[in-house]
Design a protein that fits this description.
By secondary structure, the protein is an alpha+beta fold. The protein contains eleven helices and 22 strands.
Length: about 375
């Protein structure tokens, strides 16, 4: 399209006229000078055109986020159920619980041109950010994809855990040391693959328990018991403070679960952690009788913890537009994203603010009942 517009001067009536005709009207003495002047103007115009087109195609260090497709967690993807359950009774569900996605151009995904960045900036459904705000410096496409895939796997495990907790179904949950940065408070005291047993005598199967115990001690040493090679080992660790002012052990922790039945989530070419809440709602609907949605078309986004807390995500504005384009009329948004929600809600979409899975489930059930949903929590600007 840019090239076509750039070629317009060649079809301009003035450019298409015969220079000889103009020379005859003006008289023979001035014809030669006008021919030279016209040629110079043509060359200058052509040069300006080439420089303009070149400038528009130059890469710039920006990232463009656009609305992506939606996927119904109660439906199928490439002929396979998005959520399938083995070892527990499951129930077919009607309606939609759509997870939402965002297309990301720029950074390791390939360069964005000046023209693409400018047109995206003019489009209310898209967003433009400096590259360094979205991707770490020097990250490759392969590294970005791997990180996104790991985040997706973690969100799926957290979704299963939070859904089972919401339904009161017991399962085994542990936290394991996945890494110890050099110079951390736990260096030389804890080891990778250690399984946390307790902190100051409190069972440490959830991150919230560890954080609460460290905060209560206000920086004092804590006794940490871990399981290592089949034996319990106790270490006294003095917590350090992170930039946010929170006391930490200085270790990377990952959850390890053992569920009473298998839940498989099949979704191709989608990564990241932001589908956690919608996966959890889909699991709740799949393993309980009846239709959670009542046939309504509902969409949403948000990370999820095993305890059911809903966390913030990126691209909320693009996801709301994508949800509305996909047919949703109700959208569940993380409370932490409310500042980005206000002023960006597309027409015809009601946005409900949620902080945890229980609130999200309540909102869906209210919409399914056909009751008035106008009293549900909404976002307001700070």
């Amino acid at each position: 399209m840019t090239i076509t517009q750039g070629e317009q001067p060649a079809s301009d009536p003035a450019a298409g006229r015969s220079p000889g005709r103009r020379a005859r009207l003006a008289g023979p003495r001035s014809g030669g000078k006008r021919d030279k002047r016209s040629s110079a103007m043509f060359v200058s115009g052509l040069l300006a055109l080439v420089l303009g087109v070149t400038a528009l195609t130059l890469p710039v260090p920006y990232v463009v986020e656009s609305p992506g497709p939606t996927f119904n967690t109660l439906g199928t993807d490439n002929g396979k159920p998005v959520i399938s359950v083995t070892g527990h009774e499951s129930f077919p569900a009607e309606g939609n619980l759509d997870l939402t996605t965002v297309y990301v151009d720029g950074g390791p995904n390939g360069p964005v041109t000046v023209f693409e960045a400018f047109t995206a900036w003019l489009n209310g459904a898209k967003a433009v950010y400096p590259e360094e705000l979205v991707f770490p410096t020097g990250v490759t496409k392969e590294q970005s994809q791997q990180e996104s895939a790991v985040a997706m796997t973690t969100s799926q495990e957290n979704a299963v855990a939070s859904a089972l907790k919401e339904l009161g179904i017991a399962f085994e949950q542990k936290m394991q040391v996945a890494g110890i940065p050099e110079g951390s408070a736990s260096a030389g005291k804890l080891q990778e693959d250690d399984v946390l047993v307790s902190v100051n005598g409190k069972p440490a199967s959830a991150l919230s328990v560890v954080q609460a115990e460290l905060a209560a001690g206000n920086g004092a040493p804590v006794d940490v018991v871990v399981e290592r090679a089949g034996k319990n080992v106790t270490a006294s660790i003095t917590p350090s403070k992170n930039p946010a002012g929170r006391f930490i052990l200085g270790v990377l922790l990952q959850y390890k679960f053992k569920f009473p039945f298998d839940v498989k989530i099949s979704l191709e070419k989608v990564g990241g952690p932001s589908a956690g809440m919608m996966f959890a709602l889909g699991i709740v609907d799949t393993v309980t009788p009846g239709d959670l949605t009542g046939g309504e078309h509902i969409a949403g986004t948000g990370t999820i913890t095993p305890d059911g807390a809903v966390g913030p995500i990126g691209g909320i504005s693009q996801k709301m537009h994508g949800a509305r384009s996909g047919g949703a009329t109700l959208f569940l948004a993380p409370a932490a994203n409310c500042d980005e929600v206000v002023g960006n809600i597309p027409d015809g979409l009601q946005v409900v603010r949620v902080e945890n899975l229980a609130e999200a489930r309540k909102a869906v059930e209210l919409a399914a009942s056909g009751a008035d949903t106008s009293g549900l929590p909404v976002c307001s600007s700070n």
